[in-house]
């Protein structure tokens, strides 16, 4: 009798572990699918992730290998790529109407700012976001089926982008490039009201902050490139020849312009 009870106990443990694994794999796949479906609907560019790993009991998760593509007409392979984005969630909120995300941390992303001094790829993506979401809100009449997750209420207490590198490519300078560091981007208390925010609103807010920071950094790099500067690997190794010209193409002032 004792042996039977022990066997039943271990069988129950195995079933529980298998059930937990099944839920884990199911949710990971659902989140990956949602990112790769909703992302392109909002931005009109490809959005891919290698994998999603959620640990519900620990209230944490990771998105690995995030790649946001570029709009048509731009030559660089991606606008944003990041090895890891980590998040901390409030597990109990997954059973409520609003998911509470305690933190999102995008670590060391590579951001590409490709421009001809009139238009740039990041502004184009933001313009796409505003076109599809009405300035960060859900469109009144979606042009294609919308995932249920796209309308889910969210609250994000802390959104942090650290260690970002900005790769500036200027086609009108013969494809000259520069790589500079982006300052930390820190957003707080998003969607703390009863209505929360939607994934579209969160995406718009975060991308707007990234564009503002990237444009300011790119303007300085482009001015240097226009003076003949050479970026030998990073900003710290920037070299400006002594015979630099004083005037840089006036189009730098149009960097915010959307295509």
Order of helices and strands: HEEEEEEHEEEEHEE
The structure class reads: alpha+beta
Major sheet: 10 strands, mixed
Mean pLDDT: 77
User: Any idea what the radius of gyration is?
Assistant: 22 Å
Helix fraction bin: 25-40%
Low-confidence stretches: 2-26, 136-145, 242-252
Number of domains: 1
Number of extended strands? 12
Could you tell me how far the N terminus lies from the C terminus, measured between alpha carbons in angstroms? 76 Å
Report the β-strand fraction as a percent range. Answer: 25-35%
Q: Give the overall shape, derived from the CA principal axes.
A: elongated
Q: Tally the helices: what do you get?
A: 3
Structure description:
This protein is 32% helix and 29% strand. It is of the alpha+beta class and 259 residues long. It has one domain. Strands 1, 2, 3, 4, 5, 6, 7, 8, 9 and 10 form a ten-stranded mixed sheet that branches. A two-stranded antiparallel ribbon has the order 11-12. Strand 4 (80-89) and strand 5 form a beta hairpin. The longest helix is centred in the N-terminal third of the chain and has 42 residues, at 2-43. Residues 2-26, 136-145 and 242-252 have low confidence and may be disordered.
In summary, what is this structure?
The protein is of the alpha+beta class. It has helices at 2-43, 121-133, 199-226; strands at 47-48, 51-55, 60-68, 80-89, 98-107, 110-115, 153-162, 165-170, 176-181, 185-190, 230-231, 238-239.
